[in-house]
């Protein structure tokens, strides 16, 4: 008989059991058309890459002049469209579905929904993410059982994650790569290894090549690292640590940025994506104080129904992202405000600096105040699961700051930074913040371990 008290077989059996359950749930998860949400953008770029061998914007499948290819673009990061293009090469049925979507200009409801190769790969990404949750929790909490508790808690979000497994979008790849970056940073902190910091920077750079916002996390980490070098002792021992991380980050992102400089004359990760996203977010700064108060309740789990019942049926109308809601902030930012600001800036090339100068720096307090409810709305991953564990994670982060627990901080602080960053520059949605599942699950495991009698604990955990 297997003895589970030494936890030798429990991790593997627990993970296998969870994946079997996830596979069962996956078979019952609805597969939506390939024309929904942002799928057509990535599909269009991948189609152009397969057809022409060039990266394009693939934006709305806008046809070029007769006989000319669509221009080489940089509106989106290249890694995920490349993955989709590879999947098209090995999966003819998926390639046929993509061709249908492109040729119908993403308007045909009759196009096949086949994307088996992409979805199987993304399910494997989910599996690897759960393994990372287990390993990181075990390392930072110092308890074999805490790792198992954390992965069970993380598996509760399977309905959310499986939904994104089925979408041809960046969420699962970005989640896995950022989790790998955090795991490498934990390994570097535990083993005092400069090599692992290079891997952490490399994985974070690959995350930025999937979703460009994560490059700013790299900048933030580099600034913090520089501060530790300048004000820490001994400096010469800390400098290689910073150089290793920055070297890994640069190894991933610099080739693509140099390509953009050569092709488009702009040394940047993207062009147009950043300001297009920011102007949508800035539109919400126009809300009144009454709308500002309603935004807090409308962003809660089940908050729309509650707000409509208490404050009237129109309480959350301005916060909808429905094309039919002409007066909604999202549609204002995506329409009239975008057109006005692009024209005033003199084109897309100056659009981002114009927005920062005239809308953020001109009214920093307003922008900061609106960022707060946006951050709260984006934090509730899996509704009440995220609401409860988010509070626990705040407590755990505070205790780690007080006690100087670097292991916990390496996990939590990057995730909190991205939550606030997304809230300040985009119409923050929970899908942007799926990485919070990692620190939330660890926080839940930490709480459970503390509630158990001390004689039943395996290993130690922060107090």
Task: Explain how this protein is built.
- 67% of the residues lie in helices and 0% in strands.
- It is mainly α.
- Among the domains are: 34-114, no CATH class; 171-268, no CATH class; 273-362, no CATH class.
- Helix 8 runs antiparallel to helix 20.
- It is globular and about 60 Å long.
- The chain starts with 9 loop residues before the first helix and ends in a 12-residue tail after the last helix.
Task: Record keyword descriptors for this entry.
463 residues; mainly alpha
Rg on CA atoms, Å:
23 Å
Q: What is the H/E string?
A: HHHHHHHHHHHHHHHHHHHHH
Question: How much of the sequence is in beta strands?
Answer: under 5%
The largest sheet is: none
Structural class: mainly alpha
TL;DR?
This protein is mainly α and 463 residues long.
Task: Note the topology.
Layout: H1 10-27, H2 39-52, H3 79-90, H4 92-103, H5 116-141, H6 144-155, H7 158-165, H8 171-191, H9 194-208, H10 215-231, H11 235-264, H12 273-282, H13 289-298, H14 303-311, H15 329-334, H16 336-345, H17 351-360, H18 364-379, H19 384-403, H20 406-425, H21 437-451
Helix pairs in contact: 1-5, 1-6, 2-3, 2-4, 3-4, 5-6, 5-7, 5-8, 5-21, 6-21, 8-9, 8-20, 9-11, 10-11, 12-17, 13-14, 13-18, 16-17, 18-20, 19-20, 19-21
């Amino acid at each position: 008989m297997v003895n589970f008290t030494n936890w030798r077989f429990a991790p593997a059996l627990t993970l296998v059991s969870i994946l079997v359950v996830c596979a069962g749930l996956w078979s019952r998860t609805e597969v939506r058309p390939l024309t929904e949400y942002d799928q057509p953008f990535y599909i269009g770029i991948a189609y152009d890459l397969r057809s022409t061998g060039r990266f394009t914007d693939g934006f709305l499948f806008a046809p070029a002049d007769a006989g000319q290819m669509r221009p080489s673009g940089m509106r989106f990061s290249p890694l995920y469209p490349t993955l989709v293009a590879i999947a098209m090469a090995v999966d003819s049925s998926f390639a046929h579905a993509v061709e249908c979507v492109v040729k119908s200009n993403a308007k045909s409801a009759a196009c096949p929904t086949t994307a088996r190769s992409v979805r199987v790969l993304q399910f494997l990404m989910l599996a690897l993410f759960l393994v990372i949750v287990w390993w990181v929790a075990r390392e930072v909490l110092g308890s074999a059982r805490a790792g198992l508790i954390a992965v069970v808690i993380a598996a509760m979000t399977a309905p959310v994650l499986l939904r994104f497994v089925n979408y041809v979008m960046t969420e699962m790849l970005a989640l896995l790569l950022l989790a790998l970056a955090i795991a490498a940073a934990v390994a570097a902190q535990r083993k005092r290894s400069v090599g692992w910091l290079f891997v952490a920077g490399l994985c974070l750079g690959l995350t930025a090549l999937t979703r460009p916002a994560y490059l700013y996390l790299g900048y933030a980490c580099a600034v913090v690292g520089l501060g530790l070098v300048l004000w820490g002792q001994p400096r010469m021992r800390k400098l290689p640590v910073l150089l290793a991380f920055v070297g890994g980050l640069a190894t991933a992102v610099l080739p693509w940025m140099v390509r953009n400089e050569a092709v488009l004359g702009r040394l940047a990760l993207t062009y147009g994506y950043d300001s297009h996203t920011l102007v949508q977010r800035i539109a919400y700064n126009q809300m009144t104080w009454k709308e500002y108060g309603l935004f807090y309740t409308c962003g809660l789990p089940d908050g729309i129904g509650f707000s409509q019942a208490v404050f009237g049926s129109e309480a959350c109308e301005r916060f909808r992202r429905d094309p039919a809601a002409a007066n909604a902030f999202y549609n204002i930012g995506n329409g009239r405000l975008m057109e006005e600001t692009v024209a005033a800036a003199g084109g897309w090339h100056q659009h981002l600096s114009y927005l920062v100068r005239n809308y953020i720096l001109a009214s920093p307090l307003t922008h900061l105040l609106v960022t707060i409810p946006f951050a709260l709305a984006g934090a509730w991953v899996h509704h009440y699961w995220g609401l409860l564990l988010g509070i626990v994670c705040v407590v755990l982060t505070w205790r780690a700051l007080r006690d100087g627990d670097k292991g916990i901080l390496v996990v939590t602080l990057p995730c909190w930074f991205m939550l606030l960053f997304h809230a300040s520059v985009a119409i923050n949605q929970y899908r942007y913040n799926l990485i919070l599942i990692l620190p939330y699950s660890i926080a839940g495991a930490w709480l459970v371990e503390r509630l158990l009698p001390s004689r039943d604990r395996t290993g130690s955990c922060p107090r």
